[in-house]
Amino acid sequence: MEELGGPDGDRDPAVSELQRLVAAEQQRAQFTAQVHNFMEVCWDKCVDKPGSKLDSRTEGCLASCVDRFIDTTLSITNRFAQIVQKGGH
Question: Span of the secretion signal (predicted)?
């Protein structure tokens, strides 16, 4: 496949920006997939049998799982911000 660029071999800034946006979307899709996987793991770990009401053990387990999810999300979000900041300079 031919490299897209200008006559002197430099890459077109629009192509570079498009590649950056595609990479960001791919990372976002991976993050979303990880969120869904994490939610499935928490459900399988915490909920023995679904019923009309959660018992205290299940409720506590899900609360801890949510806390871990929030911590993980914040960590990943901060990492994304660092990557975008480095890419923007």
Answer: none
Q: Mean pLDDT of all residues in the chain?
A: 83
Task: Give pTM, 2 decimals.
Answer: 0.49
- What is the spatial distance between Cα 89 and Cα 85, in angstroms, rounded to a whole number? 7
Asked, for residue 3, whether it belongs to a domain, the answer is no
Domain that holds residue 20: 13-86
The answer to whether residue 8 is domain-embedded is no
- In a domain, residue 1? The reply is no
Residue 6 is encoded by which pair of tokens? 């200008």
Tokens of 10: 């430099």
In order of 23, 34, 42, 43, 57, the CA distances from 19 in angstroms are: 6, 23, 35, 36, 47
